[in-house]
UniProtKB/TrEMBL annotation:
PANTHER family: RING-CLEAVING DIOXYGENASE MHQE-RELATED. This is Glyoxalase family protein. It comes from the Bacteria. Residues 150-268 form the VOC domain. It comes from Rubellimicrobium mesophilum DSM 19309. The lineage of its organism: Bacteria, Pseudomonadati, Pseudomonadota, Alphaproteobacteria, Rhodobacterales.
Length: 317
């Protein structure tokens, strides 16, 4: 399989929309590129944070369920999400993030990285990457010289990594190296977000997903026709996927990996500018067509977010 381009997005569970929004936009300096709701629970936000356009390989998304309890780390989940930053920038990030909580600097598989946590205890890392040509979002308060370029990797926590490694090989990944209990898998070429680390711990308890947990990891393909090819190849390899699902800004298929992690394959098209001008991305509450009739009710249920209007874009324009 050579259609996978790398990561598309990572979706996590959160407990407070305001705190989640503030951390990813203010502390990390990402752009909120879409403010919408969960398709299956429309009284819960679905927030998207990334680069200027929300390009695949840059987008962290969240479902903030109000007052959700903390999840429990364990096997069968994506245990850490890492972002790529320029060489020499970790000292600045260390100083920037220190007031928000403890950070740890380390060298791992030959790369310098800074470990930290988000507001719900989600495990995050900033990894120095040389020559990453992706352009950071500079409309926030983080200087372009240290700005996040997009994802570097995700780490999957597994009791047995072998079957998941075999799946990733089917998806085009190749083993690049090992350190301790971690096996690094990388696409030979892709969108810059090309690494998946497999952390094996046979004694790990099963993860319990809630606030701070990654709900699913999405991989990028160009378009729906390519997605159909991937779906057929996964079926031939014995994986049962969902039908293609319209998520407004991409088409999605989902399947459960041998280690229990939920994977998605998402299209790069049509993108987040399909229903908002680029200069206004994320500033209005956009609702799926089937939930538009709930707009007035949602005004009283959803936590207000700074810079977000609940009025339809058409009325604002």
């Amino acid at each position: 399989m050579d259609q996978i381009n790398g990561l598309h997005h990572v979706t996590m569970l959160a407990s407070k929309a305001g705190a989640n929004n503030a951390f990813y936009t203010e502390a990390l300096g990402l752009r909120r590129v879409k403010t919408t709701v969960n398709f299956d629970a429309p009284d819960v936000y679905h927030l998207y944070f990334g680069d200027e356009l929300g390009r695949p390989g840059t987008v962290m998304t969240s479902f903030p369920f109000p007052n959700a309890a903390r999840g429990r780390r364990g096997a069968g989940e994506a245990s850490m999400t890492a972002f790529a930053v320029p060489e020499g920038s970790l000292s600045a990030w260390e100083e920037r993030l220190a007031p928000l909580g403890p950070t740890t600097r380390e060298t791992f598989l030959g790369e310098e990285r800074l470990l930290t946590e988000g507001p719900d205890g989600e495990s995050l890392a900033l990894v120095e990457v040389a020559g990453d040509a992706r352009t950071p979002w500079t409309g926030g308060n983080v200087d372009a010289g240290i700005g996040i370029r997009g994802f570097h990797s995700v780490t999957l926590a597994l009791r047995d990594a072998r079957a998941t490694a075999d799946l990733l090989r089917i998806m085009g990944y190749r083993e690049e190296g090992r350190e301790g209990a971690v096996t690094r898998m990388r696409l030979p070429k892709g969108n810059g977000a090309e690494v998946v680390d497999l952390h094996e711990d046979a004694s790990a308890p099963p993860a319990v997903q809630s606030a701070g947990s990654v709900h699913h990891v999405a991989f990028s393909v160009a378009d729906k026709a390519t997605q159909d090819e991937v779906r057929r190849e996964l079926a031939q390899a014995g994986f049962q996927t969902t039908p293609n699902i319209d998520r407004d800004y991409f088409w999605a298929i989902y399947f459960r990996t041998p280690g229990g992690v939920l994977f998605e394959v998402a299209t790069d098209e049509p993108g987040f500018a399909r229903d908002e001008p680029v200069e206004r991305l994320g500033t209005t509450l956009r609702l799926p067509r089937q939930h538009e009739h709930l707009r007035d009710a949602l005004k009283g249920r959803l936590e207000p977010l700074e810079g977000v209007s609940f009025e339809p874009l058409e009325k604002i324009s």
